[in-house]
Amino acid sequence: MSFPSFSSIELIATAPMGLEAVVAREVRDLGYEQVTVENGRVTFTGDLLAVCRANLWLRTADRVLIKMAQFEARTFDDLFEGVKALPWPDWIPEDGEFPVEGRSHKSQLSSVPACQGIVKKAVVESMKPRYGTEWFRETEGRYVIEVSLLNDIATITLDTTGPGLHKRGYRKLVTEAPLKETMAAAMVLLSRWQPERPLYDPFCGSGTIPIEAAMIGWNIAPGLRRSFNAESWPVISEALWSEAREEAFDLVKDDIPLQIGGSDIDPAAIEVALAAAKSAGLAKELRFHTLPVSKALPAGDYGCLITNPPYGERLGDREEVERALRQFGQMHKQLPNWSAFILSPSKQMEHYLGRKADKKRKLFNGRIECALYQFFAPGGLFGWRKDSSTSGN
Question: Where in the chain is the domain with CATH 3.30.2130.30?
Answer without folding.
Answer: 9-159
